[in-house]
Amino acid sequence: MSTTSRASPLDTLIGSLARLPGLGRRSAQRIALHLLSRREAVLEPLLEALAHAARAVKPCSVCGNLDGADPCGICTDAGRERGQICVVASPADLWAMEGAGAYRGLYHVTGGVLSALEGVGPEALNLDALAARAAGAQEVILALPATVDGMTTAHAIAATLAETGARVTRLGQGVPVGGELGRLDPGTIAAALRARGG
Ligand SMILES: [Zn+2]
Question: What pTM, to 2 d.p., does this model score?
């Protein structure tokens, strides 16, 4: 599949869709047909939503969450517990925590985990900003993926935060090894939050 000038607009569309996570070429063809056969109901609202999101949605300069406002709605929510910061790898994990409905503190979204293989170092995870925020917090809850890289990252963060005075805890049992929060049911996340330990 190519995006050269010889590719038809339909092929270009299918090729772009096929690059989205979880979609192969067959799904991309199905979606392209669906969009083009329902222009008013589906294609045009989607175009508008994409253009609007591309313009308006940005990472929060405080916590890294994606939102239409900066600072984001969670950072500016006066009802949130400001002494707790939950560290997650991605906005999807933040949404999973929010979906569990058991956490009312703030977040820090790292945007990934340390990876020697992929060349991701501490500076990429905005850990200096986390340390500065943690200095004014009571507890930092690490809710990073239960993978080798996730655990390496948790150790590195715990070491970085050692001098801030904040208590560093981790989500407790119930989070399977290799699991991403987004794949867990809300009850499991809530139980893991209750079972957290240092
Ligand atoms: Zn924020």
Answer: 0.81
Residue 55: helix, strand or coil by DSSP?
A: helix
Q: How far is ligand 1, taken at its centre, from the CA of residue 71, in Å?
A: 5
**178 CB-near residues (< 8 Å, 6+ apart):** 145, 146, 147
Q: Mean pLDDT per segment of 10 residues, for the chain of length 198 residues?
A: 71 96 95 97 97 96 96 97 95 93 95 89 88 93 89 91 89 61 79 79
How far, in Å, from the CA of 83 to the mean position of ligand 1?
A: 14
**What distance in angstroms lies between residue 89's CA and the mean position of ligand 1's atoms?**
14
pLDDT at 153: 93
Q: Would you tell me which CATH number, out of the four given (3.40.50.1010, 1.10.8.420, 3.30.930.10, 1.10.10.10), belongs to the domain 9-56?
A: 1.10.8.420
Measured in whole angstroms, the distance separating CA 76 from the mean position of its chain's CA atoms is 19
Joined tokens for residue 73: 């709605």
Identify the H or E element spanning 108.
strand 105-109
